[in-house]
Amino acid sequence: MEMEQIILIIINVIGGAAVLGSYVLDIRGRGGSADRLWGEMPQKARPVYYISMLLSAVGYFFILYFLLFVVAPDSVVIAGSLGYWIFYIIFIGMLGFSAFRMPLTSKMALVPEKSTWIWLRAVLLMAALFSCALYWAILSIQEGNEGTAFILAAVGSGYFAFHTMVLDCIFWPILWRRG
């Protein structure tokens, strides 16, 4: 394993802990059930999200497997000029913005304010844009873009981008507010 891959692991460990920690601390710290975080979303819509979150998590692991164990960082060329380092920016952005989702959602559920709603929507959009950038970067890798690991990473990143952009950024706010 090369230093670039170790850095990517560190980014994912710290960023992943921030995201998961924000969920755990927020739900436990506020003493409520996770139910309030769904807002007015109909019960029948929630299983779609549960399944999609599971598929997204599986896709995320395919992405990490590909980037950590298949691709040689020094041979990565994306869009003609970007190297492996672009994944640092993408993952930091994606995980960084995602860590703010739960605290903002909880704040919105407890004390609804327009400014909180705007910040929450901005966080969802930024996380989704970084997810789309990840999909683009995976598809744009010019060497190592063949084989099962690449296909799984491409499909996984595509689905992850779909979930964050379409389900989280577009549909979740509509369903959360209107039920």
In this structure, how is the largest beta sheet organized? none
What's the shape? elongated
| Strand content range | under 5%
In whole angstroms, the N-to-C terminal distance is 48 Å
How many independent structural domains?
A: 1
Average residue-wise pLDDT: 92
Order of helices and strands: HHHHHH
Give the number of helices.
6
Class by SSE composition: mainly alpha
Q: What are the segments in which pLDDT stays under 50 over at least 5 consecutive residues?
A: none
Helix content: over 70%
How many strand segments?
0
The gyration radius over C-alpha positions equals: 17 Å
What secondary-structure arrangement, pairings included, does this model have?
Blueprint: H1 3-29, H2 46-70, H3 86-98, H4 101-110, H5 114-140, H6 147-178
Give a verbal description of the structure.
By secondary structure, this protein is mainly α. It has one domain. The chain is elongated. The chain has helices spanning 3-29, 46-70, 86-98, 101-110, 114-140, 147-178.
